[in-house]
User: What shape does this take?
Amino acid sequence: MLIPKNNANQMRTRILVKIVEKFLQGRFADADRIPLELRPKGEPFSRCCIYKDRAILKYRCMASMGFAPEDETDELTSLKEYGEKALERKEHAPNKLAVITDACSACVKSRYMVTDACRGCFAQPCQVNCPKQAITIVNGRSHIDETKCIACGRCQEVCPYHAVIRVPIPCEEACPVGAISKDEFGKEHIDVEKCILCGKCLQSCPFGAVVEMSQIVDVIKHIHEGDKKVIAMLAPAVIGQFPGTINQLIGALKKVGFADVVEVAAGADITTRNEAAEFIEKMESGEKLMTTSCCPAYCKAAEVHIPEIKPFVSHTKAPMYYTAEMLKKEQPDCVAVFVGPCLAKRIEAEKDPNVDYVLTFEEIGAMLVAGGVNVMDCEPEEFAKISSAQSRRFPVSGGVAGAVASLVEGKADYKPTAINGLNKANIKLLKQYATKGCDFNMIEVMCCEGGCVAGPGCVALPKKSAIMVENYVKTGPNLKDMD
Assistant: This one.
């Protein structure tokens, strides 16, 4: 599912920039001006009035500081005070998504409806094919009785004029695991136990009502305290996310305060070797199937929603784990910050003592903008450790399976396939593969369609980023040659 640029996600970025600016200007002393600066008098407003716009912006600022809007106990608590609390906290912001109730429009139930394009034709295929006789002709046009309709979509399929449309609830439609649903007041609510932190509801809500709890304040606080080295671990999906070269980006990140920058693709080399060895071992022991384990959203989905597939999930750790492990061995007192396209990495980081914080490319972009750093003006710098071509391709669908293939060739019968994006249909497919078997013995599962380059924390178009990743792959050595 491609989410185009829109006012909701652009405002999220603007808020992040403002948050960093207010920290740099005076440690949030002027933070209460953010809603006024983003929605000044005289400009058009998007809700009932400018004051509601500003109220919603305050909640979105709270989330960007790491506070869940539903946890607010006193509406008079200022953004300045929230900023001070963020700087005082010892633990990072909670890893969850939340809904700003006042911003949620309480969308009506998903349904099919007949538009003005209906011609009231003689054939009446919508009525003839409806299994529940929910369609009648009223005033020369088809009419759907919602009390009888089972939302099978048959009427939409057979209408020769495409006069029947489906009106969805965008956030519920996007969630692959049913973690978001209406409460008793018709407002959406996210069940944190079911949520896999894929971010699809965040991307799809047209009202910007879904927010993430950012860790950006925690990171910039550590950078400016200067008592520990703050090191960025760059995920391979970073290629194409920012203007300039990857080497210029390394220089830019150091300019905003990171002491060093390491390439997570180096950890992916270890993942590839371990996953290949695990696959060979499983096949030799008579097992029929293994799935990849790099995507944390998929891993939680397997644990909570697809127990049938869980026994087949690889035990190999993801690239972030091995990268952080290497980093902490070399510099045990550093602050390790994973930088990538994924919100679900925060779930993975909770279980990893070597990863301190997780930021998205969007959050890093906000730090660069607020700090006045232009990537293309920065002096290029090199990664200390070079990674393989195969591991640099991890963020594109098929990349993980392809990397493993390069090491199992001639050692095991390798029949891979890919689940390119987690949705309700693919979850059913995974259950089927686990219970009824399949023609494959390795399944690469990516939650985001197209791979990590389409993650909710990305700032570039997925297809453009994928092309640039493929070009970057050509500059890396072959993994076999590195052994």
